[in-house]
3-phosphoshikimate 1-carboxyvinyltransferase (Aeromicrobium endophyticum), 427 residues
Amino acid sequence: MTDPLPWPAPHRSSPFVGEALVPGSKSLTNRVLILAALGDGPSTITRPLSSRDTELMAAALTALGATIDRDGTTWTVSPIGSAGSGAATVDCGLAGTVMRFVPLLAALGDAPVTFDGDEHARVRPMASTIATLRSLGVEVDDDDRGSLPFTVRPTGHVRGGPVSIDASSSSQFVSAPLLVGARLADGLDLRHTGATLPSMPHIEMTVAELRRRRVRIDTPETARWVVHPGPIGALDIEIEPDLSNAGVFIAGALVTGGSVRIRSWPHRTDQAGDAWRTIVPAFGGTVERDGDDLVFSAGSTLDGVELDLHDVGELTPVVAAMAALAGGPSRLAGVAHLRGHETDRLAALVAEINRLGGDAEETDDGLLVRPRPLHGGTFRTYADHRMAHAAVVLGLRVPDLLVEDVATTAKTYPDFAPAWERLMTSD
Ligand SMILES: O=C(O)C1=C[C@@H](OP(=O)(O)O)[C@@H](O)[C@H](O)C1
Ligand SMILES: C=C(OP(=O)(O)O)C(=O)O
């Protein structure tokens, strides 16, 4: 394969003022697809995200025996039947939700399923998934490295019951067994035993989506979830815009002294990206609701921030880019687990901000960013869509910035580069 041509990041010498309607949430789409595939009847999904991560999820569920019929922006999912699907291979790409969630579904079947993914996927932590499967009595063939590839060999019957896991490197290790728990004969009594648990809003989203489908879940104490056995109700649902991905537009407005209207920001949501409503004021900006939209505007200064991003780690690359352009130093904490994301995001952000003349440093659990005048150059993306997002935020203020591989954004937002190009010509 030839290397991609670097993409010139959009640049502004005046404030960026615009509006954006971002595509559907990755986290919601992939949960809703799984729950539809496990449902007690067909479900429709309106305005799902169609991107690499969600198409990989759709393909994985189809390989396990679900059917997905598409009509414009509505997908109708018929659940995985009792007939089973035979042996299958699942390509996880670089999608955490596919590599962590789907092996638990494979455990409910009766034929071996092999999981593999991109080169970068093979270094993402998977030991907790493998340990969970084994403690449920499911055989897993792996090479003892705690990573992809591996083969799940189901027994045809999983009792469930008490399971203890360490999910300190990813909340997805909790969400995955919760998603299938109701379908186990004895349900599931899941405890997280590790020192920290990142991305709690994502776990809460899992619990909320299960409850919407009449699954009974109790949370008797912190880091313990009891899922009662029973059917998962079919549900017709519309997917909300991806609020984490809205962050690039919000940050773009803030760093250029402008303002952006994000259309259709849900009045109530379980998405982690809703945290932009508190992050923006920390940088000195303002947030106003206008009907169904939120309008984010820059303040008179872009202030340095002290933020704990433990719950919303996926926002870190864009926040770090804003910090590199702020008027004072910033400390971003609580995100040690980003070292196991699409790439080691802490190392990647430090390397790329500093390559442009910046001053960023890793701490045990985050970053220190001291603003410096930045110069152009090629911002490397490490196969990580959110590194490309960070590059766009920087490029709006720093002339001559090239994004190494903007195609990485197809993971969650295939129209990302054209959307920016349209915004730059219409403003
Ligand atoms: O369950 C999910 O949909 C996600 C959970 C989070 O993972 P981590 O807990 O590994 O950070 C988040 O960062 C990721 O983008 C999506
Ligand atoms: C961590 C992320 O993705 P994944 O779902 O692959 O873990 C992300 O999108 O920032």
